[in-house]
Amino acid sequence: MPSGNDNASGYSPSPAIPLKRRGGLTVVAHVVYAIVMREVKTRFGRGNMGYLRALLEPMVFIGGFVLIWFALGRASPIAVPVELFFLCSLFPYVAFTRTWEYSAGAIRSNTGLLMFPIVRPLDFFIARTILEAASQLMVFLILAVAVHGLFGELRHLPADLLGVLLAVLSAITLGAALGLCTGILAMEFPSVEMILMPVRRLLFFSSGVFFIADSLPAILQEYLWWNPVLHATEWFRSAYFSEAESQFLSIEYLWSAIVALLVIGLILERRLMRIGYQ
To answer: Alpha-carbon distance 187 to 184, whole Å?
Structure first.
């Protein structure tokens, strides 16, 4: 029975949305597929302009940096066209940061669906990660073909295509794992988003977009070694260019960071399952 205070104020707090457990990989797959289809329509719309924008945004981003680099009279740090260098330097960072930002808002953008018993928060992260991975790989393929056709040579084809794909998937997985952690934390502590803004800027300048890690002084290498995004960038360039083999790269550390963030994110998701979404 409502209390006198509730009647007086005319306000009754909304109950927490119960997040029930469910089983069966088939059910999970159907739920994730439905969310992916929903996200495609929401993100890209029903026409082709959304897909075109997804392609043009990184092209404009990379093209802008190439023009600035030329205006400053700078050359590529390795013996490849500067356009190709920036493509291979920016793409791992863009794949990481876009997945991070996109997955971090997964729950907040889909809270209404949590009223369905078979849907749980982790489904949104899985769906958004799959969609972002597919989008980023398609964008990179188109951009790589375009850049090679305009500026590249046969010797600039990927030296290790499998390594390139693994590096991209590592950057995407790192972004998804970090998005899982920060997205859940931000629902309880909104100030987390404000704290992360300078972190994003710091990562942009410390993730190897403008430099080769092996060319840095030892003191800087010592501090930047702890940035897993830099390892993803170095892995991508090392796999793409045979002349850019990195002594700085630690794939073991990169995947240790990914696994640690995933474990933390899954613990936070389980906690959310217990307390419900307020």
So the answer is: 5
Nearest CA to 274 out of 12, 28, 25, 16 is that of 16
Place of tokens 């909104």: 190
Q: What is the pLDDT of residues 97-151, one digit of tens each?
A: 989 988 888 777 777 777 777 887 788 888 888 888 888 888 778 777 776 666 5
CA dihedral sign of residues 224, 126, 142, 52: negative
Q: Is the pTM of this model over 0.85?
A: no
Q: Is 277 helix (H, G, I), strand (E, B) or coil?
A: strand
| d(C-alpha 255, C-alpha 207), whole Å | 16
CA atoms within 13 A on the CB side of 170: 25
Q: What Å distances lie between residue 207 and 124, 223, 225, 257, CA to CA?
A: 27, 12, 10, 15
213 with 248: CB under 8 angstroms? yes
Domain chopping of the chain, boundaries? 17-275
Q: How many CB atoms lie within 10 A of CB 45?
A: 12
